[in-house]
Every structure is written in C-alpha cells, then in structure tokens.
Write a structure and sequence with these properties.
Structural class: mainly alpha
Order of helices and strands: HHHHHHHHHHHHHHHHHHHHH
CATH class: Mainly Alpha
Largest sheet: none
Mean pLDDT: 92
CATH topology: Hydantoin permease
Bound molecules: phenylalanine
CATH architecture: Orthogonal Bundle
Oligomer: single chain
Radius of gyration: 21 Å
Helix content: over 70%
C-alpha cells in the first residue's frame, strides 16, 4: 500500500494549478525571497548588531542552513503537492512516520499570518514614500528634515493605517487571481528592475566619499561585538530573507513541474537574494556615514538614508520615487508568498474558493496589523519582553518560529523521508545530493539547536 502511494506521488497534481515554466518558478520564489527583508531589514539589523561579524554569520547561515532548508522545502512541497499542512500530514504517513507532522505546516501558516501583519505595515510606509518622493518633499532636505518627516509620518496612526490597508488590498487582489494569472505576472519584471536600480544607487554611493567606511563596517568582523543574541538574529535574518521555515517555499514547490532541478533553482534564488541584500548594505552604509547618521538607528534606516541622499542629487525626486515603487513591488511579491500557505490551506481544508480564502485570511492579517500600526505611535510606550508589539512579533517569528520550522523541515527531509524519496526529487544520489543530506541531517538541526540554547544561556561557555 505504502509503496503504491509512493509510486503514485510522481503523478500527483496540485489543486491550484502549476507554474508555466521553470523560469516562472524561479521568478516566483525569487520574488518571494527578495523583499523588505533585503532592503529594509538587512541593513538595520546588521547595523544594530555591529556590522562585519553579523554579516559573516548571516552568510554562513545562508549557505549552511538556508540552502539545504530551501531544497528540503521545495522537495517536500513538490512530493506532496498540497498545502503545507496537508503535505506534511500526507508525507508523514507515506514515509511511515505520523500525521502529526502537519503541525509543522500549521506553525508555518501561523507564522505567515503573523509576519504579514507587520510586513504589510512597513510595506505601507514604502507606499507613502512613493508619494512623498514624487511630490519633492525630500528635494534638498537635510538630515533633520528627513528624520522629522519619518517621525511625523509613523507617528500618525491614521496615515499608517491607511497605507497598510491599501497594501493588504493590493495583496488580496493578486492572491485572488490565482497562481498563474496573478503571481507569475506580478514577479516577472519586478525583480530584474529592482536589481538594476540598486546598481544605479550603488554607483551613487560609491561616489559619496564614504564608500570605504561603509565597506569596512560591513565586512571587517569584530567578533568581540557579537553576542549569542546577535548570532540568533543573524540566523533569523537568513530564514526571513530566504522566505524559509514557514512553508511559503513548500507551497510554491507544490506547483513546480516534475522535471525542474530543485538544486539549480535553489542555487539561483539564494544567490539573487544574497546579492540584493549585500547590494542594499553597500548602498546604505556609505550614505549613513556620509550623512553622520547612526547605523544602529533601527527600522527607519532606509527611510531616512535614501531620501536624504537622493534629495541631494540631480533628478533625486525621480530616482527616489522609482526606488520606493520598486521596493513596494518587491514587498508585494513577498506578501504573496507569506499568504500562500494559509490561503492554500483554507481552500483545501474548508473547500473555499481562492477569492474567499484570500479575503478571509487577508482580513485577519489586516486586523492583526493594527498591533504594528500602533507600535510606532499610540502604543509606542507599551513595552513587554522584547519591547513594542512590533518588536515581539518580529522576534517571535524571525528568530523563533522560522528557525524552529526549518529545523523540523530539515529533520523531516533528512531523517523521516527515505533516501529513495529524496534522491528521486533531487535528481539522483550524486555528490551534491550527499552534501545536501549531510547538511539536512546534521548541520542544520545541530546548528539551530546550538544557537537557540546559546541565545537563552542554557549552554555554558567553554572558556
Ligand atoms: N523573504 C521576504 C523578504 O525578505 C519575506 C518573506 C518571509 C516572504 C517569509 C515570504 C515568506 O522580504
């Protein structure tokens, strides 16, 4: 019975349709990976954690943990061809373990909802900054003016709530249209366009006179500055930026044609995502130093450095507008990935249409988003555990739920699924397969557990 089911797995079809080509899949996953995580989050988290050493740990996590987890997610998704909850239940039983693996999918659905609730608010800021840039608010402005603009804007909850509502509306709209018509078309041109604009901005920051300072901040490691909390943050950032650990990539993998190489696709996505994050750092940090700003300034960093720098240059209003348009697009394609596990789950589990599911889930996320909307104004002083509601959501999802999800996904692919199943999905048991399996079975679980235990102080220092 089991072997029969396994043999049939190759013929399973996804309910939601399939990507029209390999390129469409790579673009969709890249679209999900490249987003606010690269351009908004990476620079400020790197800045808050001291730069160089954080960046090195982040890169190590991307290669040693991120890449194998991404491959595991895609292969699980494609084999199950259902939403992450049902896929984990199905494969759990098929591989002779238990249906209970569905809880890993369930945690992913929840993480996606929680992340999008704050992601949408920040994406709303980028929408507002399109208008601010276009109307020339930043032209010739100094650091104090740009800072006051930012504080004034996020301090006004009505304005922030309006933009958050607009962004959720846009997201629900595309999700409703379905896999091929909605998602694919949305990502086709956004990622290349963002890459090109980042290169243009890099040209500007190279000539800012402080490029060397930015470069050395990012790449000169001072490990004495690195606490285990920072290591946890670097690992969380790797998960967040690659969209892994919560089933988004698993859900996208479910729509992947049989013949596509999972290894090749993952390699392309990880490379593109890392490149854009590093580029963002190389654009932002020289500007931070050129303008005497603080790299540890927090979530407002991109919203202050870029408008300021661009406001000084000829055609700045145009480039600033373009930048925030592209960043909004990048956020938009990521938001689709954040919603996909929940939407696919509601469609399959409760027999709803995609449109109904998008509205139900999107509505919940919109409501939850007010926790973050208020974190920067009326509830800015309400502080518990890690700080505001936003900071707690951010910490709980990025640093806890995503790595935990990744841990279970790697253990499932490495230990629960039999060698034949995974080798079949990864195109044979060659050299790279063996490396993947080694990472998934040992490096990922041990690495994640070790960082968790260190960060909560349960492992003593050896020295
Ligand atoms: N990777 C996205 C970013 O960097 C965020 C994201 C996380 C998207 C998880 C989908 C799933 O902005």
């Amino acid at each position: 019975m089991l072997s029969n089911q396994a043999a049939e797995s190759g013929k399973r079809k996804s309910l939601h349709g399939h990507w029209s080509s390999r390129m469409a899949f790579v673009l969709a996953v890249t679209g999900s990976a490249v987003g606010l995580g690269n351009v908004w989050k990476f620079p400020y988290v790197a800045g808050q954690n001291g730069g160089g050493a954080f960046v090195i740990v982040y890169l190590l996590c991307v290669v040693l943990v991120g890449m194998p987890v991404m491959m595991s997610e895609i292969l699980i998704g494609r084999r199950g061809r259902r939403n992450p909850v049902a896929t984990m239940a199905l494969l759990g039983e098929e591989e002779g373990s238990s249906k209970r693996w569905q809880w890993v999918g369930g945690m992913g659905v929840l993480a996606g909802i929680m992340i999008l609730s704050f992601y949408s608010v920040i994406a709303g800021w980028t929408l507002a900054y399109i208008v601010k840039s276009a109307t020339g608010v930043f032209t010739g402005a100094d650091a104090a003016t740009v800072g006051a603009q930012f504080d004034g804007f996020v301090g006004d909850w009505r304005a922030v709530a309006f933009c958050h509502t607009l962004f959720m509306g846009l997201t629900i709209f595309v999700v409703m249209r379905g896999v091929e018509r909605g998602l694919e078309q949305a990502v086709r041109f956004m990622v290349p366009a963002l890459l090109v604009l980042m290169l243009v901005l890099l040209g500007y920051s190279v000539t800012s006179g402080h490029f060397g300072e930015g470069l050395s901040f990012m790449f000169t490691p001072d490990f004495s500055k690195l606490s285990w909390d920072s290591v946890l943050a670097a690992m969380g950032q790797a998960f967040f930026t690659l969209s892994i650990g919560m089933g988004a990539i698993m859900a996208y993998g479910a729509y992947l044609p049989e013949e596509t190489s999972i290894m090749g696709a993952s390699g392309a996505v990880v490379t593109a995502d890392t490149l854009i994050a590093i580029l963002a750092g190389l654009v932002i940090f020289p500007l931070v130093f050129a303008n005497g700003l603080d790299p540890a300034d927090g979530p407002g960093l991109v919203f202050q450095t870029l408008p300021l720098a661009l406001g000084q240059m000829p055609g700045g209003a145009f480039f600033s507008t373009l930048f925030f348009i592209l960043l909004s697009f990048a956020a938009w394609t990521s938001a689709l990935g954040l919603m996909e596990p929940a939407v696919a789950w509601v469609v399959e589990r409760f027999s709803k249409t995609r449109a109904q599911a998008a509205i139900i889930i999107g509505g919940m996320i919109w409501l939850l988003g007010f926790g973050t909307v208020f974190s920067f104004n009326v509830l800015a002083d309400v502080s518990f555990y890690k700080g505001t509601i936003f900071l707690n959501l951010d910490h709980l999802t990025n640093n806890i739920m995503l790595p935990l999800g990744g841990l279970f996904i790697a253990v499932f692919a490495g230990w629960i699924m039999c060698r034949n199943s995974t080798a079949e999905e990864l195109g044979g048991a060659g050299f790279f397969y063996r490396i993947w399996r080694l990472l998934a079975r040992f490096v990922v679980p041990v690495g994640i557990l070790f960082v968790f235990l260190k960060a909560v102080g349960l492992l003593p220092d050896l020295s």
